[in-house]
Amino acid sequence: MIPRSLVIAVAAMLVVVVAMGTYVRRMRRQAGTLQSAADLQPVAPPPSGPTETVTLYIADDAAGTLRAQSAQIPLPGGRQQRAEELLRALLRIYQQPDAGHPLAPAADIRSIYLVAPGAAVIDLNTAFADQHRSGVLDEQLTVNSLVETLAVNVPGVTRVRILVEGNERETLAGHADLTDFFDASTIAQATH
Amino acid sequence: MRVLAALSRPALVFLLALTLLSAATSADEKRVSVYSSVATYALPVIDRAGHEYVGLLELLEPLGRVSAEKSGSRWKLRYNAIDSEFVPGRARARIGGRDYDLPLPFLFDNSRGLVPVSSLSTLLPRFLGAPVNFRESARRLFIGDVAIQSSILLDPGAPPRLVLNFTAPVNPTISTEPGKLRMLFRRDPVVPPGGQSISFDNKVITQVGYSESNGAAELDVSANAALMATFSNGGRTITVAAVQPSAAVGTAPSPPTFPGGPVPQNPTGPPPAGQITAASSGDTSHRVLAVVDPAHGGDERGSALTATLAEKDVTLGFARLLRHELEQRGFSVVLLRDADLNLTLDQRAGAANAARAGIYISLHAASQGTGARVYTALLPVEGRSNGTFHAWNGAQARALPVSRTVAAAVVSEMQKRQLPARGSSASLRPLNNVLMPALAVELAPGPNGISDLPSANYQQQAAAAIADAVAPFRDRMGVQP
Question: Residue A180 and residue B380: Cβ atoms within 8 Å?
Answer without folding.
Answer: no
